[in-house]
# Entry
Amino acid sequence: MIVIGLLIIIATFWLIIKNYETRLVLALSGGLMAILGRDLVGSVDAFIQQFVNSGLVPTICTVLGFSYVMNYTKCSDHLVAMMTNILKRVPMIILPSTVIVTFFLNIALPSAAGVAAAVGALLIPMLLALKVKPGMAASAVYLGTWGSVISPGLMFNPQIADMAKVDVMTVIARTTPSVLISLGVAAVLLTIMAIVMKEGVGSNKDALATDEGQVVKVNYLYAVVPVLPLILLVISSKQIGLIPFISVPQAMLLGTMIGFVVTRCNPGEATKKFFRGAGDGFADVVGLMAAAAMFCAGMESIGLTGALVNVMKESQAAAQFAAAAGPFAMAAVSGSGNAAALAFNGAVVPHAADFGYEIIELGSVAQIAAALGRTMSPVAAAAIICAKLAGVNPMEIAKRNAIPTIGATIVVTLLLL
# Structure
């Protein structure tokens, strides 16, 4: 049964890499394993339970709704433009600053593809105007698109919080210092590569004089609105406690209402955008988590989860390596780390104490490694967007991001585990 289960898992990930519908592949694979393990009903129940998970569903749906409203009101554009205007004043540190600014914008705007499009449209032309080589310009923006790992709206943080029986800000507070150190490592490594490869500011001698991208007159009040929910969550968290506790859904709804008032948008249309985002969050994110839960239940019924846990009990090094290397490699190949990270978190992380780790740390390493693996993938949507904006092949970005992302993964794994 173990061998059959391993073959099913290999086939599952191969189909995902080949861009078959991830939810369908995970659900069918989980169902097949559950049939072999004589527990199809249990696998289906695991699928259904995710749809009524009170800790995850409201968080994911309200975050996506808020994000859609920010795009509709153009508040996201003003936030990006404000950060871009700051960067223009420091050309000598423009590459690491681009990585870091994109990273922090990705916390407020959790979609990697969305932030790549919004930030790339402004920063990549600016970098090209400063005579940065196109491949390096695209890589700098793309390398910052894993900031969502410390966003309360990322599906994994509520999932880990639910398993650990803590609030989502506790998870983020525990992982943020290690993530920020890893961010610094990635930014420095890319800067060193730009120097060694002679692709930094002023290196592209053949570049024609160009405009520095579109000019947006920043409305600073609009620019602040996308980060208001984050501010509310931080100051109301148990670690700070300046105001009474506010949950993620509450913060997102408050941010949405403030956006309505500040931008004086059409409330009817903005409301439609909010619920469209909430619906897409349910379909795309909650649906994926439900399929992953069915997959994990199938693994457990066939005995594969128990075998994997037993191997990890024998060695902390095995658990440490599996948590980082598996999701990273899967994401780098497929362009999405969601399936691998969800499978690992669902099957292995609940047993973290059995091999000497805590749920928060082990689960966080898996999802951070997946995000970093996706940040060097040439087939991810964010990579394709950045490559298009810079006029290069996505593979050129992947080659430049390989060392920084691998370095950051090693550092965050060693710091957290």
